[in-house]
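Morning, I've got a small favour to ask if you have a moment. You're getting the sequence in one-letter code plus the fold written as tokens. Thanks so much in advance, here it is:

===
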Amino acid sequence: MEIGAVVATGTWAVAEASVGELVSRRRDEVDQLLAAVGEIGGFSDVAMAIADELGYLRDHQITAPSLLLWSGGIENISPRLEELEEPSVVRRMCHMGADLQLVHFLQALVTAAIVDGRDERQGADRVVEALTIAVSLADDAGRSTAEGTFRTWRVTFLPGILLPKSSAPESGKAGFRAYARLLEDLLDA
């Protein structure tokens, strides 16, 4: 949400970003996303309330160091932290952060769906719905796509899970293979 709030400013100015404003303006999408995540993972309402309790969906200060963390530390940590607020640096952190967070989000969705044991076709439909909403919230400028996130996920996570030397159980491997095929079909990636 922090990355999406910064991207939504159109200025790459961290000080202008507001998670609260983004959530307020796009409340229906946020609610749809949370409902999809809850359904995919079989999470109770009590478990889903944790997101609100943590404050990630309420207005809070967004800082360049937090963007640095969300983006995996791609920028150099300078003794002058204000250098992290330069628009070109913020833009890079937001782009990398969106890519990184969306790929990890997709991995979490697929894993939750497999663990929950839901019907794979139905689960894949909900995963695509949740991913599409998350992509839109993270990058309303259209740089990120569900298709691109899927392709990155496929080459980032699947080899480690599906290689013969992997310690993943065969049932897990079968689940990931099934989701990879279904998601590819749904996203036409």
